[in-house]
Fold:
Amino acid sequence: MIEIVTASRLGEQEFWKSSPLGVSLRRLASDGRLSLQVALSNRAGLPEVYNARISAQNRSQVVVFVHDDVWIDDYFLADRVLAGLEAFDVVGVAGNRRRVPNQRAWHYVSAPGRPQDRESLSGAIAHGKTPFGRVSSYGPVPAECELLDGVFLAARLRTLLERSVRFDPLFDFHFYDLDFCRSARLAGLRLGTWPICMTHQSNGLAFESAPWINAYGKYLKKWGD
Structure:
């Protein structure tokens, strides 16, 4: 069983009717390997929602943490995730094969608009207001990575429990993914990208906003770089 975990500010009816993830899962309803846990009308940080599912007593073998503004364009989702987890402990769709001090995002070294050297990036994801959006291709995939984009993260539940890997509630949204990846690597887990087709409704950019600056300061203080 693959449990898809997400959080949404929408109520139940609106989630299934209009959220990209809800619409996508209705389309994939025939795949009995997929189940959903969604925090509806949510105001909590993503780590709080995600950690609750890691610690919950359930029969799921695999957990997938994904944003609710993602269309799953790939109807072989379950097969892709299971194949990816044969190669890596944590799987994403985009990532960075190296990490540098004072990293500001998984794909940015310094200021927005200055991406890290292309040869260190991996993966692909589409962006747009509708499914099957324009694809942003970052680099060869699959590839072992140091950092993964938090828009989609999959792992075996037993692995996270045995290695005591969790999301830090210190980061309610910004930098929760970088922090999680570093914690996973510190625990000896292998991270990697895998080809899974999806479209992210948001461009994911919120650099230099007050919440982002606050989270970046906490991130640097925690990790000492």
Remarks:
- DSSP finds seven helices and 13 strands in the chain.
- Residues 210-223 form the longest helix (14 residues).
